[in-house]
């Protein structure tokens, strides 16, 4: 069984429509975010939670911001994807699902517009709405290591329905995928949402929030990141062995916080790493109140600054 790591509640999200107590779900190590659109203009009831995602973003048009509702922990499987018997896992694999209230269907958009019904048409979403999604993805990147990248093809609805745009991943591609995708990319599902949402702009805003620069192909000379991206807390737990542990250890030594190493840093997280991180945290007033030796995004950012 997978073990959850890092914060499970998105800061500021309401739990007024919390469904995990009723529907449980499986713990997962999340490295994928799937974006949906609700094709409605208000917060759905989701059948009392039986078809709910992890979170829903509701546009507050007057305040020009997204209001977030959380229904399941970030690393608990939710229920918004089709999962066919005998196929690949969808809801229960490694996925945090986000529903965006509004539409990606140009016909629905035209009908609502003609009726003076306020809504967000996500292929032409206002900048504040895209920035709201970007802030969530930046948080998922920092706290859970979800890559700020995704499929190249985001065809417009209704072309995106089924696999009309050739965008849907195969089962094998899905199993290996890490990053951000749409409902229209998930195998075993026919839905075409969120259509032609401006994914490139969302990623650009998320990277700007994290000071990572923009490495899209359109950028001739990408800005060099000032601080390497925090990979997520799950890489710094007992028994973990990876390149990020070694990168952290080398930086600790460089900054003068390697006293607990006997022979130097390694790829395997251990007590010496934790004690060295704790020493660094104690040296910074921003971190002293939580000097437990576990590196989070702020510890990482200050250490590499």
TrEMBL record:
InterPro entries: PG_bind_dom_phiBT1-type, PGBD-like_sf, PGBDSf. It comes from the Bacteria. Transmembrane segments: none annotated. This is N-acetylmuramoyl-L-alanine amidase. It comes from Streptomyces phyllanthi.
């Amino acid at each position: 069984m997978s073990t959850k790591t890092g914060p499970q509640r998105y800061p500021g999200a309401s739990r007024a429509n919390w469904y995990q107590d009723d529907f449980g779900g499986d713990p997962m190590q999340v490295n994928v975010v799937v974006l949906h659109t609700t094709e409605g203009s208000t917060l759905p009831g989701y059948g009392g939670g039986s078809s709910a995602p992890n979170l829903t973003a509701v546009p507050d048009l007057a305040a020009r911001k997204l209001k977030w509702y959380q229904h399941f922990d970030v690393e608990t499987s939710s229920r918004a994807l089709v999962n066919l018997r005998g196929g690949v896992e969808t809801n229960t694999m490694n996925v945090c699902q986000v529903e965006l209230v509004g539409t990606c269907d140009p016909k629905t958009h035209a009908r609502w517009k003609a009726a003076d019904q306020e809504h967000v048409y996500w292929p032409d979403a206002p900048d504040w709405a895209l920035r709201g999604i970007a802030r969530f993805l930046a948080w998922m990147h920092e706290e859970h290591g979800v890559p700020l990248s995704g499929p190249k093809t985001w065809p417009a609805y209704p072309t995106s329905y089924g696999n009309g745009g050739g965008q849907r991943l195969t089962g094998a591609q899905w199993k290996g995928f890490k990053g951000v995708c749409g409902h229209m990319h998930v195998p075993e599902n026919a839905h075409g949402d969120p259509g032609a949402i401006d994914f490139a702009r969302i990623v650009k805003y998320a990277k700007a929030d994290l000071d990572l620069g923009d490495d899209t192909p359109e950028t001739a000379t990408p800005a060099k990141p000032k601080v390497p991206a925090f990979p997520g807390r799950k890489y710094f737990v007992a028994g973990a062995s990876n390149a990020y542990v070694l990168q952290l250890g080398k930086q600790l030594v460089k900054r003068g916080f390697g006293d607990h190493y006997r022979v130097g840093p390694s790829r395997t997280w251990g007590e010496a790493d934790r004690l060295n991180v704790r020493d660094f945290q104690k040296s910074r007033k921003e971190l002293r109140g939580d000097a437990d030796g576990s590196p989070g995004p702020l510890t990482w950012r200050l250490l590499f600054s």
